Amino acid sequence: MSADVQLARRPTPDTPSPPDGDGRAPWLLGPALIVVALAVLVVVGAWVVILTQPTTTLPGLGVTWQRSVDFGRDLLGVDSVGTPAYADRAAWGEVLPLAVDTVVMSVLAVGLAAVGALATIGYSSRLLTVGEFGTHPRLAWPLYLLTRSMHIVARSVPDVVWALLIVFLVRPGILAGALALALHDSGVLGRLGSDVVDNLDRGPLRNLRAAGAGRVAMVAYGVLPQALPRLVTFLLYRWEVIVRATVVVGFITTAGLGYQLRLDLAFRRWTDVALVLLVYVVLVWGVDALSSALRRLAR
Amino acid sequence: MSTPSLVWVRARPAGRSLLSLLLVVAFALSVLAVAGEPVAGSGGAKAAREVLASLLRPDLSLPFLRTVAEATLLTAAYAVAAMTVALAVGIPGALAVSGVLVRRRSARLASVSVVRGLFATVRAIHELVWALLLLIILGPNPIAGVIAIGLPYGATVARVLGERLTDVPAAPLAALTSAGSSPWQTLFYGRLPLAGADLAGYLFYRFECAVRAAAVLSFIGLGGIGFQIQIALADLRFERVWPLLAALLVLVVAVDRLSRYVREAGTV
After folding, report:
1. What domains sit in chain B, N to C, each tagged with a CATH number?
2. How far is residue A119's CA from residue A121's CA, in Å, rounded to a whole number?
3. Whole-angstrom Cα distance, residue A147 to residue A124?
4. Chain segment A173-194, per-residue pLDDT in tens
5. Closest to B189 (Cβ–Cβ): which among A25, A245, A247?
6. Please, what is the Cα angle at A124 between A122 and A129, to 5 degrees?
7. What would you report as the CA-atom Rg of chain A, rounded to the nearest whole angstrom?
8. Which residue among B38, B78, B80 sits closest to A171, beta carbon to beta carbon?
9. C-beta atoms of B80 and A42 within 8 A
């Protein structure tokens, strides 16, 4: 495996043949073939594992179609008696405050994640610790490795699993959900942020240092003005992702639209499910639109 | 005296200050909204101590490690299978979303807007919500889990790949078209090679997300790392949570490393 990867890493110089050779595009040849062969092997293996699970059944097309249609009718409340929830003022009155809770949870999560990331990327960027502009020779490596590992751990564990753990420590609710989302996202933003800092234009930093700027002045006048607009852009992108995830985290931390969806599904109140889904999708679209409008401001 | 300040104003657009203000105010409001709530959980400090103490004595017995390995393999299998679905949806989807194969302008606009709206809806719904909905239609079936991840990811891949296919530099494409190549030939000799390099990196990033999503498919009663974590937490066996989290960490980091190799090779 590692030998193949090694092979794949260093394309031999004679592989890119001119495209007129045998009529195939040059990028389809060479070490790519090995990578493709390995990928096919992995994919086949994965599907074998999935298809041999004890609960796997291959759903028939006809049956699946029928069930989908039935489910769609349930959601629309075609055969049910009474007003469907999405046409009921009282139901809207119950769901809209939950949508507000969901937005609050997402904003709180983004904010906390930003605080967590900003507090650490000064140490997790190579440039400012062990790289060209590092100033703490003894503590640099430990701090760099510590903050890097923190980001990796935070990022690798999904927000839902963080939520499962956090509800043991924090009272279930908006705050617990926001903490779970923020924990995962501080890892994501931390990584993105340290990449941004590492890829900064070094000219201004060198000028500042030559002018005698200390570490604080360098960060304030050299790093932040360059990095902040990009970080804010990432932050707004992550907000879009987080809003989608608030629903799922809400299942666990019993907050917002997610918890309502879980209850409605459990009690088979299908038209209420439809209402929550409708509000959820509109909310996600609204946040996407707002985020892209705000990103235009950041430019 | 006035010139430097003018330069400064131009270099720092007013939009940015407004944006910073908006973001800070929004965050402050969200903090105020939850400020009154009690914070401590039901377990309180005792639960916190237990969770932390269990970190020092993780369950590393052989039978449990076997369970961890099996759960990890299953989660990886879900992620890979889901990515094949995502590509099967995303690649044709990208061609439809970008409309690069349709020559007539009106037909392109119509097809593109319909497909875009459809994909935007699919993408808006989180993969685990898809899982819950598909559970109702397909039952607790691993296929439902694979589709639940693959469908919204496919819609995302379609958008990103579609954008890359339309954003390639125009000159090489014009050269191909003026030499008489069809839209398909332009796609294979112009757009794909031009968009290809950083595309592989993006697909691996999606794969990494798929691994995390697959880990929490326990939501719809499917196995894997998340399922084992849920069991361990329900039994209050915190010492079993850490090896499971470590396995997930290794899996995610492995995918990340693999992605770096592939990007450096530039072969895909």
Report:
1. 62-265 (1.10.3720.10)
2. 6
3. 5
4. 899 999 999 999 999 999 989 8
5. A25
6. 70
7. 26
8. B38
9. yes
Euclidean distance between CA atoms A51 and A13, whole angstroms: 42
In this prediction the ipTM stands at 0.83
* Helix, strand, coil percentages in chain B from 3-state DSSP, rounded to 5: 85, 0, 15
3-state secondary structure A125-151: CCCCCCCCCCCCCCCHHHHHHHHHHHH
Give the minimum alpha-carbon distance from B92 to chain A in angstroms, rounded to a whole number.
Answer: 19
Share of chain A above pLDDT 90, in %: 36
Contact partners, residue B1, CB within 8 Å, separation at least 6 = none
Q: Which residues are within 8 A (CB) of B39 and not within 5 positions of it... i.e. 6 or more apart?
A: A170, A171, A175
Q: How far is A290 from chain B (nearest CA, A)?
A: 12
Q: Distance between CA A24 and CA A21 in Å, rounded?
A: 7
Cα separation, A63 vs A82, in Å, equals 28
Q: Which residues of A touch B76 (CB under 8 A)?
A: 46
Residue count (chain A) = 299
Of A8, A42, A235, the CB nearest to B267: A8
User: What are the structure tokens assigned to A112, written together?
Assistant: 């906390």
Residue A69 in contact with partner chain B when CB distance is under 8 A: no
Cβ contacts of A232 on chain B, cutoff 8 Å: 19-20, 23
Give residue-wise pLDDT tens across range A76-126.
888 777 788 788 888 898 899 999 999 999 999 999 999 999 999 888 888
Nearest Cα of chain B lies from the Cα of A79 at a distance, in angstroms, of: 18
Q: Tokens 């599907």 correspond to what residue?
A: A47
CB contact under 8 A, A57 and B196: no
Amino acid at A239: W
